[in-house]
Structures are given as C-alpha cells and as structure tokens.
Amino acid sequence: MTEKGSQMDLLSFDDRVVIVTGAGRGIGRAHALLLAARGAGVVVADLGASVDGSGVEGDDPAADVVAEIRAAGGRAVACRADVATESGATAVVEAALDEFGRLDAVVNNAGIVRTGHFDEIPIEEYQRHLDVHFFGSLYVCRAAWPHLIASGTGRVVNTVSAAMLGNPLMTHYGSSKGAVFALTRNLAIEGAPHGVLVNALAPGAGTRMAENSADSLPPDVMEYLRTQLLPEHVAPVAAYLTHPSCRVSGEVFNAAGGIVNRLAVVTTQGIHEPGLTIETVAERFDDIMALTPRGAAGNHHPDFDGELMTTDIDFPFAPRPPAEAVEHLRRLMADRPMTKVTMPYGGDVWIVHRNRAARQMLSDRRFVREPFRTGEREVPFFVPFPDFLRTTLQFEDPPQHTRLRKLVQKAISPRRVRDMRDSAVAFANELIDGMITRGGVRNLVAEYAVPLPIEMLSSLLGVPSSDREKFERWSSSTLSVAGKSEQEIAADMGELAAYMTDLIAKRRAEPRDDLLSSLAHAHERDETLTDAEILPIAFLLIVGGFDNTANFLTTGVLSLLRSDEQRELFLTDPDALAPTAAEEVLRHGGFMMGGPVGGGGGLVPFVATEDVVIDGQLIAAGEAVSMDPGAANHDPDVVPDPGRFDITRTDNPHLMLSYGMHHCLGAPLARMELQVGMAEIFKRLPQLRLAGEPVVRHDVLTQPMTDLPVTW
After folding, report:
1. Which residues lie below 8 Å from residue 114, measured CB to CB, with a gap of 6+?
2. For a surface tag, which of 350, 460, 465, 683 has the fewest beta carbons within 10 Å of its beta carbon?
3. Sequence-separated (6 or more) residues with CB below 8 Å from residue 405
4. Which helix (H) or strand (E) holds 319?
5. What sign results for the dihedral spanned by CA atoms 206, 208, 210, 214?
6. pTM recorded for the entire structure
C-alpha cells in the first residue's frame, strides 16, 4: 500500500512503543495521534500545566487524547506526571513498561513559554524553563535509556526551537532550548554504539504557546500561524525520526507549514597562523568569518578542498548508510591522523584513525596498559569496562606480557591449529546435519556460529564441550554492560573462577595434550606459572575466544548473504576463496550488516609513558591513546577502494585483530574457524538465504548477534 503521490510503502509502527511528552495538546497531540494511527502503542504524557508553567490546570488533556486514540482503534495510555522531576519522568517510562512491556522511542515535547526582555524576566523563570525543557528531556532520556538500548532500534526526538538562535523576547526560552540541542548532540554520540539514534526537531505551528505570544506579534503573523502552520504539518517529521528506518543521529530539523530542512552547525575554513597575534585576528577577521574560501594569503588548512567544512567531519559521528560512513572516514583521515575524544567513562583518549599511524602506535613500547591494570586510571570507554578483563594478559606489559604470551603461543601455534582443522570441518558438518534434519527456519547463531568455536576452544583448553551453556552464560555476564546487577555478575565470575581452578588442579595431577596442561606444567621447563597467572589466561580465552569468533562467523555469512555478486563468486570454490574472504569479512563485514554505521569507538587503549609524536601529532606523557579499526580498515592509503566488499582481495592490511605485541593471541584459531565455518555452510547449503533480520544484543560489551534466521 502506498500514499497518494508516493511510490514508497507506508511505514508501519506496529509493535513500536513511543512516549510523547506534552502530548495532551497542540503539536504533542498531533504526534501522538499520528503514531497511534500507524500502529504504535503511545504513552500520552501531559501534566496539564498552564502554558507558562505557573500551575496545573484543572482538565486532564492526556486522558482526552487517549480516549480519542482508543475510539479510533489505537493503543494508548495516559500518564499525568511532571517530567521536570526525576520521579515524574520515571513514572512516564514505567507507564510504558506496565502497559506495553517495552519501550522503543521517546519524543520529548513538553514545554512552557513566557515572553519578556532579558532584564525583565525573573531568574526563577530561567530556572523553570530549564527544568521543563532541559531537565525534563534529560530525566526522561535517563529513565528510558536502558530500555532504548534493549530495543536495538531506540530513538529519541528532542524538541528545540529557532529561538535558541536568538529572539529578543525569549532569552530564557531560547537558552533552555539551546541546552536541549547540546544534550541531543551528546546523546547521539553516547547512543551510537547501542543503536540508539537521537535527533532534535524545531517545530513551527500555531498552538496555544504561539497564542501566548500574540501580544508581541503582528496580527497578520498570528493569522498566518493559526491558518497555515498546523501541528499536523510537524508530526510526520517527528514520527519518521522515531522509526527504525531512520538512520541519522545528532541532527536538527526545522518543520513548519510543510517545509522541512536541516539545521547545520558550520565550521568555516578560517585561518592558520602559527604566530597568531591580536592584530592578525583583527586584520584577517573577514577570512575567519567567510563561509567559502576568500583566496587571502596565508596558511590555510592544507587539505581544504573548497567545500564548506561542517561538523560532518566530526568524530565520533552518528550512524549513516555504509557508503556515506566510508566517505566520512576518508575525509576524516585526510583531515587528521587522530582525534581526542572525551569518553563517557575514563576521560579523554586519542583515537588513531590512519592505518600506518595505528601500526606505529601499536608497535611502540612507550605505550602501556599498567595504569589501567592497577586501577590507577579508569579505562576511557563508552561503557564501564569489565573489571575482570583488566586482570588478563591483554593488560600486561613487557616483560611479563612477553613471558606469558610466549607460553600461550606455543599451544596456539599455526601448526597446532592446522592439525585441528580436520576436526573443525567434521564438527561443522555435524552441526549442519542437525540443521538440515530439523529443517524450516534455523537460528544460525545458536545452531552453528556459537557451537563451532566453543567446540574448538574446548578441545584446545581441555574443557568438556558439554559445558558449552555455562561458557555462554559466563561470557554474557562478564561482558555485560547493562541488564545485570553487580551481584549477578560477581556470582557468575565466582562460578567461572571455581570451575577453572578445579580444572587446573586436575591438569596438574593428570596432564593431557591441551593448553591448560601445558600451562600448568610450564615450571618443568623453568617457566613457572602460578594458578593466579593461568586463571586470567583461561578467563580471556574462554570468555572472549568463542564470543568474538562467533561474531566474526555470523558477520561473514551475513555479508555473503547481503551481496549476491560476492556470494555467487564464493560458491565457485569456497575452500580456495575462504582465506581471502575471511580477511575481507574481518576488514569490512561490519559495513555489510544491512544497517547504518557510526564511528566513535576504539580498541582497548594505552597510556603514553613519555611524549610521543605519531604522524605529526604529539601524544603527551600520561595521555591515553586507542586505535579506531573502523577507520584504519578503510584507509584509502593502504586499502584500494575501501568501500567495496571484495572476497578476492589479497593485500588486506586490516587491524581488526590488532597488531604488534598485542596482536590477538587466538588469531590463528579464529581465522581457521572463520574459514571453515563459511566454507562448509555454503558448500552444504548453497541456497542458504535470510529468513528475517538479525538480532543484536546491546547489553553486552561485544554486542553479539543472538539470532540470524536462515533457511535454504
């Protein structure tokens, strides 16, 4: 079914649950009615406050709108709570969970207005406007955040105003809306790793808030507002921004009278004068202000190509279509080798983008992780970094790192992995046999991608594969970033520690041909390892080893299913093409998932022990630095045509498995499993196809895929 004049199918909001605050009247009411008409379950939140926020009026507009929605066959629940308080905002979110059992999107529309000159408005009015507009949006977002993450397609639409750009009678109103704009931009960055997209809408419509300003507006303007700028002209923009198909974040849109446009923040070309003086600023002020190059003499940015420079080359950046993300990364790396980012946890960190610069940093022993391991420094990251990971080999520095890594590498040598390949092929085919026997739509993650690496890891470590379910539970718990209490995580960690301690003791008493036995008896070759040293190594391999490889395998299969051309090519000789296909999946697979791609993260960071210059950028002693694999893997200086998914690519210097002394310990095993897993499934099931969209778990650090429905 399509709308009149459009070739696009109607966007459905079935199964979506959306909160709309300030939804009892005006623009908020239009939002709620449209979303409900398209199938969404809507929480109509409205306190019933007066337009200037000075008190609560006697009627209950939220209940009236809910009655209207239900009469039309829609789903809605009313909530008369004050979002300007933390408890009120929590009550609104709880109303969604109580009525619908979930929450997918929030439209923060609650607002008040009073006009007056800057020096006439009481300070209490500034606070009141901040409470409703900024803190109201903040409180609702805070209460909704874990549920938006759990949704997988969480969306937030904050309401701002053109008044934030200046209005002589609305300094208090415009300033509070400016704070909402800043909140939107920052939440877009925080939400990107979790699939939560956050945008802002500056609406224009003739509502009771506009009527409250009637005395300050000419009569013809008020008449135009009442007759031409209708709330119904704004609601489609807000609704689209809550839909899963919307792929932008951190943007601001104006909407009034059927006109919709983007409000962009602009950085001009400006000037570059190393010997800057007051007089230089005065003399060249026109160049600083100019939106386009003026051709003035002086040192301009060497990479400026004459285009308007905007926040589009910012980092982090909000999710966008993969091709746009690759182009964004190209411009970013042309502009600078790295960006200093303030993480939500742990403070500032340099994120290195360019491939060669990343290799230089990863090879330089002046970058260490000891301050993170000892707890002296918090790990700069998007989420609280799991404590147990800081005790593992990943956070050791030479010489201890060198000693431990040498012992582990003996057990995970390329030769040993080659010897394991036949058993991997056999087990992969057992799993495929089971899928064929069961038939229908199968979950490739649970039935293939997870059991294969667990079986191989079990063989390597000497751990019974019958304990697979325990591994999965321990992994999801120890890597959890949401949804589990500290007590639950501690209990699972205790179980894992007890399990491994007991197994190490058994291997000391009765050694076998496995990694734990090798580590337990290393002292016989004057390379003594204590249980306290073996345990973190086992933790890292068990908890991280299968999880990452399973992600790689599901990404590989999905990448081929998304590309008919490359899949047909792969089917001509899966065994021969598997090695190069696996490397291309590691490099580019994240861009083949079918959804938008954002940027902002990096691998586990280091700390500089002294001043170090990388690619012309000084990293000062004590500063943290990380590597951005998404950018480094798409650096056009080392990867020709980086946006193309090419399974025959032979020169593939990706850094997905890191580099140098911290190169992934299990890389040989992971590569073998990825090659075998992809080759065997397509040899046995050449007609394999998607039977639905993948499901990703956002409350775990590695954000694993939990369901990839396939059939054949």
Report:
1. 52, 53, 121, 125, 172, 173, 212
2. 465
3. 393, 661, 665
4. strand 317-320
5. positive
6. 0.61
